[in-house]
Amino acid sequence: MELPLTPVPVNGTNGHHDGLLEPTTQFDVSLFRSYLSALLPPVIGALPEELDDLFESEDFDETVSKFAGEGSDVIYVVKRRDDLEDEGVSTFKYQLTTQLAYHVSNATTLALIKRTPILDPTAPLSSQLHFLNLFGGEETPYESLHAVVSCGVKPWFDAFVGSRGGVKDNDSKMGIPMTKKKFAELELSLLHLQQNVEIPETHLIIHPVIQKAVEQAQAKGSRPSINDIPPKLLSDSSFLNALHSHVNQWIKSIQAVTKLSRDVSSGTASQEINFWLSLERALEGIETQLRSEDVLMIMDCLRNAKRYHATVSFIADTGLKEATDIVHKYNQLMKDFPLNELLSATDLDKIQESLVLIFGHINRKLRVAPYPIRRALPLVEAISRDFNEQLTRVLTSHRLLYTPYDTFERLLTQVMNIFRTWDDSMKGFTDVARELSRKRSEKFIPIKVVPAHDKLQERTRYLKEWRKQHEQLAVMTGPTKGLGVVGIEVGGIDMEEEVKEAYEVMKRIDVLDVSVEGTEIWVTAENAYNERVARVENQIIARLRDRLGTARNANEMFRVFSKFNALFVRPKIRGAIQEYQTQLIDTVKEDIKRLHDKFKTQYRSSEAYHMAQMRDLPPLAGAIIWARQIENQLLTYMKRVEDVLGKGWELYAEGQKLQAESTAFVRKLDTRPVFDAWLQDINRRGMGVNGRLFEIVRLRGGGYQLAVNFDPQIITLFKEVRNLLWLGFQVPHGITNMAKDAKRVYPHAVSLMETVRMYGQTLDLVENNKDIEWLVAEYRNESQRMVSRGMNIRWDHFVSQYDGSRYIPSSEARDNRHIQFVREFASVVSVLQDKTNNVIDLYKEISRAVDDLSTCSYTTEAFTELLNQIQAAIDRLNLEGYANLEHWVAELDKKIELILLKRLTQIILVWCAEFDRTDDADTRRDHTREVSSKRRSDKRPKDEKFLEGHMAVKPIIHEIRIQNQVIFLDPPIEYARQSWVRQLHDWIGVVCRLRRIQSSRYEIGLQMQSATVSETTYTSLLTRFTDNTLQHPFALIENKVQQLKEYVGKWLQFQSLWDLEAEYVFNRLGDSLANWQQLLTEIKKARSTFDTSETQKSFGVCIIDYEQVQSRVNAKYDAWQRDIMNRFGAKLSVAMKEMHAAILKARNELEHHSIEGLVGGPRF
């Protein structure tokens, strides 16, 4: 809206009418027309040609004439926007009326106000008229009205009142502040209305054609579409331009809503809440219209005409989506906001409850709703204003000064609790606001709320204290105390009535009005109250002096003082009792004398001594505390006098004497000499924390023992020093340091004593278990190194340590290395103890397993289970990092080797006995039959496991068989040797194949890098026999094999029965009958081998079965024997015949020769 080019001044200085001017002639309308012609163009932006319709209207002259005469004080020029628009150019119409009406089409309204009842045509109209521009259109009038009041009317009124500041008229003084207050209220109300922005209703303009098409489609029950519009219109540019123009107007109308905002710092909290809730409803209404069929059809028409400029960015241009999103988020806080609980509260309890609900809601919802903290702070301030108004309204309804004091006290206490609730709630809100401000990374703003109820809080606090003092005065002047009756009897004033009248002055004002004017009224009334109360105080002072004058002793005086003690807070009454100091001094002297008697009984004879012992107070500190209590009691008496008589009482003569006596007694109560004597005793005894940390103590039974060099008696020292410091004594630096040393050293000394005791017990355990000594040697050496290190430490080294040294970082090792030593020593010894106890338990398990190796069953499973138990224990030792584990395991392995070697020797002897046993022939025979039957069915040899409790050498059956006229042994003798050796190896292998215990199974990676490979089994035990134990079973095997070979060889000789040819034998024997006779003898002798009823030959662990070849060999043998016998018979027959012939021939020849001829001849 355009402003006038030149402001029209408002004539007059005080706004009053200059008087009634009687018109001499009728008012000329043309003057008013000329005035408007000059005024309207610059003020409301009217064009001269546009004003022609206004001036030419039929009722213009009549309206102006009525305005110029009496009965009408104002006339309005209305500038109204024409609804018809041509090509986007707005046109306006102007109307002159005496009745003002508000309409949305009103662009501007100019009010012309007469300053005189009747317009004088002879005077300029500019001096007779005020004009006021009242804006219209879419804007609310609140801003304009607020500007008029705050920037025009109120400053002008203030300037006028300020120019008359010297006038002291009471009536005008009481009226002007009230007027100012009304102006301020009006300004504030207009500001609230201005901030309580009304959300304008948005109605989207729909083209009549579109509206008609939609209505027809709906009447048909079909969905509207652009097909319902005539095709010519869809391509008509005028129609499309109109639609496009309507869409642009929609955007402007919607933007007017989406861009709405308000200043939360002004107005009430309900305005802020209602604004966002109303804005949400308005945005929802807009969205509903945008989803209507009319709007959708318009958009389809524009898209069909490819006018994407209006459709594509429509939603983005309106800002509807962003505004809706923000409003929805903000309304998470605004919805269900319990502000009405505060605004509708009718008592203090509900106000307090509403505060808890409001801040609980704010703190809870602010965490989920992104309501800005910069808006939340003014919102809380607005809540504070509402809270202030509501609390004032409730308190005003109670009429505080009219209520009884008990009710008043209860109400004000409750009010204080309400303010405390506000403060507590504000702390919670402030914490939440700071936290959310950091999380949201919002721009930093100070989290500070200026509550509007501060002045009310201060006024109620002052009012509570003032009413309390008044109540004390009213009680003291009441009939129960008797002061008021006495005053009337002696001709004085009625104090009770006077106090009531003084109180009436305060009851007539609004005590809760904390404005500037209200404060001035409060001060004036309070001064009037104080004037009346001063007369009552004078009367009370007179009555109090009378009673003190009639008191017989100081106790009665103090009784009077105690009775009227409530009034001593008033300085005037307090100063009236200073003349009675002499009597009080005498009373105090008696009290001091009783204190003397109490002091003479001595501390050790008093009950305080026994109580001090019960409370662990050392002797010196207990005595000093006892003396201090007496001194405090003396000072209490002195303070009692000072409280009654006032400061400076010792300046009087009697006061000086009492002061001297008390000072002398205080000197007697001085505990400094006792303290000095104690210091001398401490210095003489030479106590201190020094010397080495450890000491070596000789035992009575011989030997030495490690001990801690610490005197427990020094504990009393730091207890004394601690209490003396509490009592304020200046303990010498040396003794203080000594006490500090004792205090600091004591916990470490106790720790060291416990550690040394634990160390000694652990060494005893190691001594009683020598076998584990190697394993814990490292930990024991570490403990010994710590002891060796501690031998060089002295208690003096702990002096420079502080109590907070435990919190010193480890980097400052120089400062806390001695305390660190105590902890390290305790840790090392604790580790030694834990490791020792642990290894003892493990060693017991290992020892039990090792012992069981000597008695367990001779089976692989039994030995393996025990060795696995031992190995598991060793692995635990390895994992726990015990030292010398390799050497210790080597020694343990030697023990195991000895046990296993013994078991191995025993088992070899058993094997030899079993191998060489031949007496259980029946058993072996039965077993032989079973094995023979199995072997016949399955000729493959099978390995047989040794069973627990049945260690025996399995017998082997060899069959002498003939096949294809070949005699052979099945299986061969080598199988027997192999089987026996295998069985021997199995027996021995139960031990030798056991996995040897290892100490470094967890260091296998390092062993792989080593050049040597350790033995993993006990096979090397076979080289440990010192005698022929191992050779003996093999010798038995070889002997048995040799026996088998000899026996089997006899059977194998019968192979020749099939291999040899008779002629070859006969030719070989030739004609020598001796050879034939020898062969027959051997044949007969060899026949005993197979010519028997037995079918097998037993050699103990081996059986030769010859049943299969026995008959065949016998038959073949018989055949050979028969052939040889026949041939031998033939040979013998021939030989006999030849011999007979020879004999006959020789006989014949002999018979023919003489004896002489035979001498010397050769002999045959």
UniProtKB/TrEMBL annotation:
A Pfam family reported for this protein in Swiss-Prot or TrEMBL: DHC_N1
Biological processes per GO annotation: microtubule-based movement
Spans annotated as Disordered: 922-944
Gene Ontology cellular-component annotations: axonemal dynein complex
Coiled-coil segments on the chain, per record: none
Superkingdom classification of source: Eukaryota
MF (Gene Ontology): dynein intermediate chain binding; dynein light intermediate chain binding
Domain Dynein heavy chain tail positions: 240-802
UniProt family annotation: Belongs to the dynein heavy chain family.
Protein name: Dynein heavy chain, N-terminal region 1-domain-containing protein
Organism of origin: Thelephora terrestris
